[in-house]
Write a structure and sequence with these properties.
Radius of gyration: 24 Å
Shape: globular
Distance between the termini: 34 Å
Strand content: 5-15%
Strand order of the largest sheet: 2-3-1-9-8-10
Structural class: alpha+beta
Number of helices: 26
Number of strands: 17
Length: about 625
């Protein structure tokens, strides 16, 4: 896990590499090459995880001197790949996964090597013979890679957006379409665009080639190297077989993700996903050690999951670390967190996650496993029950519909609300899309000249699905496909990457081991929602491993914080001030009267509390920190 920077046709600027020193405090490397399009620079900040001596320094050069690489991430099957390459005559001089990656790219060719990789990665590879740059990102976009073209045609690449802001002709200016998506829907990272105009990201599963040329700007071409799966189910398994296969795949993923030469631990929220990771870590470690966990706890019982965490700690024999995020730090630290996040973030759960990684750093942990990714591939969000019920009804399974509604009613979910959400998913696709667009028209605080062009734009999910060529969301299978590749997971991975790297910690996500994801998506509509259960296949897989208190829980907090209580309590006045700062910073961007009405309803408790107030406040904090103009 590291930070990288590369540029073509721009003046060498090592300061842009050092902006991300937090991503790599263990080493620094910089090389320059001649190209027909001008100087090419490769820069690297190293966080040493596998192979800790200087032999792992980057940029790393292959023995022929043709290939040079800067790499961020981990190749978890590097030992197996090394064996394959040695059998083919290759010889290695280091014990690092970076050298395995470099030799694999050189031996098989960059695009042919990518499908062999099992891990998380973003890298830039320079071919000094062909004067060609190749860059790629892992299948699901766990590790980031941004790029921008400067005035005059020069190109720059970085692990974080801040590294390319301020290039010639590239000031910090809003991308209003993506700002609108964030403010209205709370969604980001659903397209190749960012909230900064002119800055793009390589999406998960994509690669790019830059061919330098002596006449005109270097040509850049982006293509998808990892084909997206069909939403059609390909596997027909009974519940026992599905659970067994899922457990085997997840166990193997955890085993591979424990490969490390430095101390490791795990985030533990008390939910199914992180608890499964911790319990499997304990089984894999056996007598070799105990998992170390870090958990965020709250005094407010409505969001505190400590009883579930304690059950997992007891069952796994873990060594726990507890942190207690304080409301008074939310706005005090918001500017710093926003700087590391690069873009506005969606709520105070990011603040809590920040403190989890900070505590891990303070405890001397350098690698943290996390449960990110399970909810998207396994339909873990309760908001999907309406879609599940509609799917059952279309299939004529009326009895199952009634049983599910009754089971959820016994768990406290009103029947009327369940029926309404099911009905919304029975509408024709085009009508449902139009109704989602009308939501924008109802947000009167966004009814300004700046945002009016986007009031009838597709919802972020509809937009992302269309851009990637995925099928419209009509059932659980297509919903999981959309959330994994398009609408939800990319944003969560962005937040996790920035919060972990801000504290020089490598975050690993075993649920995104690609054989496991491909198996989950191939289950289609089965073994996910079953009755009142979400993620049924995971529950079955962990039947004898998770403590029953966690395995059988049906509520979902989603790493929540007591945001509403904080906003209406000790943060009331500072939240009000932050919203006013946003309104004053860009007059006319947000309609002040309805925005203040929304603020009063949230802070006074006279209306439904929601995340929109935080988004407005954090937008201004972001604008101030980065000097953003409209």
């Amino acid at each position: 896990m590291c930070g990288l920077y590369a540029s073509i046709g721009l003046a060498p600027d090592p300061a842009r590499l050092d902006m991300v020193a937090h991503r790599g405090p263990d080493g620094r490397g910089w090389q320059e090459f001649a190209s027909p399009s001008g100087i090419l620079c490769l820069g690297h900040r190293r966080l040493a995880i596998i192979g800790l001596d200087e032999s792992g320094a980057q940029p790393m050069t292959e023995e022929s001197r043709r290939w040079h690489i800067v790499f961020n991430g981990e190749i978890y099957n590097y030992k197996e790949l090394r064996g394959d390459l040695e059998a083919l005559g290759e010889r290695f001089r280091t014990a690092t996964d970076t050298e395995v990656l470099l030799r694999a790219l050189a031996f098989w060719g960059p695009e042919a090597a990518l499908p062999r990789l099992r891990g998380m990665f973003a890298f830039v590879l320079w071919d000094d013979l062909e004067k060609r740059l190749f860059a790629a990102r892992d299948r699901f976009g766990i590790k980031p890679l941004y790029f921008a073209r400067a005035q005059g045609g020069g190109l720059a690449f970085g692990s974080e957006i801040k590294q390319v802001i301020g290039l010639p002709g590239l000031p910090a200016r809003m991308n209003l379409a993506r700002i609108h998506d964030f403010l209205l829907w709370g969604i980001a990272d659903h397209t190749a665009e960012t909230m900064f105009d002119g800055v793009r990201q390589l999406r998960g599963g994509e690669c790019l080639v830059v061919q330098t040329a002596s006449s005109g700007p270097a040509e850049l071409r982006v293509r998808r190297w990892y084909p997206l799966r069909s939403a059609d189910p390909m596997l027909v398994l009974d519940e026992a077989e599905a659970g067994d296969r899922f457990r085997d795949l997840l166990t193997e993923a955890v085993r591979l993700h424990l490969r490390s030469d430095v101390p490791f631990g795990s985030c533990l929220s008390g939910g199914l996903d992180s608890s499964s990771i911790v319990c499997l870590m304990a089984r894999e470690l056996g007598g070799a050690g105990k998992p170390r966990t870090v958990s965020a706890c709250f005094a407010e019982k409505t969001v505190d999951e400590r009883p579930f965490m304690e059950a997992v700690v007891a069952a796994s024999g873990s060594l726990p670390h507890w942190v207690f995020p304080r409301p008074e730090d939310v706005f005090d630290q918001a500017s710093e967190i926003t700087w590391f996040q690069d873009e506005p973030y969606g709520g105070t759960s990011i603040h809590a996650q920040w403190h989890v990684f900070q505590a891990a750093h303070d405890a001397g942990i350098k690698v943290m496993l996390d449960g990110q990714g399970a909810d998207e591939q396994l339909a873990g969000y309760h908001s999907g029950f309406g879609l599940y019920l509609a799917t059952l009804l279309r299939q004529g399974r009326v009895g199952q519909v009634a049983e599910t509604i009754a089971a959820r009613a016994r768990a406290g979910v009103p029947i009327g609300g369940q029926l309404a959400r099911m009905g919304a998913h029975l509408l024709p696709t085009r009508l449902a899309q139009l109704l989602r667009r009308r939501r924008a028209m109802g947000a009167d605080w966004l009814a300004t000249d700046a945002f009016r062009p986007f009031s009838l734009a597709p919802s972020p999910q509809d937009l992302a699905v269309a851009e990637l060529g995925l099928p419209p969301v009509t059932d659980v299978a297509s919903w999981c496909l959309a959330m994994t590749h398009a609408s939800n997971l990319p944003m969560l991975l962005h937040w996790e990457d920035r919060n972990s790297m801000a504290h020089s910690i490598e975050a690993r996500v075993p649920f995104l081991d690609h054989p496991l994801v491909e198996f989950s998506l191939a289950l289609g509509n089965t073994h996910k929602f079953v009755g009142a259960d979400t993620k049924r296949v995971l529950r079955r897989a962990m039947d004898e491993i998770l403590p029953p208190l966690v395995r059988d829980r049906r509520d979902k907090l989603g790493f929540a914080t007591p945001e509403t209580e904080w906003m209406r309590g000790s943060l009331r006045e500072v939240a009000r001030s932050a919203v006013e700062d946003t309104l004053a910073r860009w007059p006319g961007l947000i309609a002040p009267k309805p925005a203040r009405q929304l603020m009063r309803q949230v802070l006074d408790g006279s209306g439904v509390a929601g995340p929109a107030l935080w988004r407005i406040a954090n937008l201004g904090i972001w604008g101030k920190r980065f000097g953003v103009s409209v």
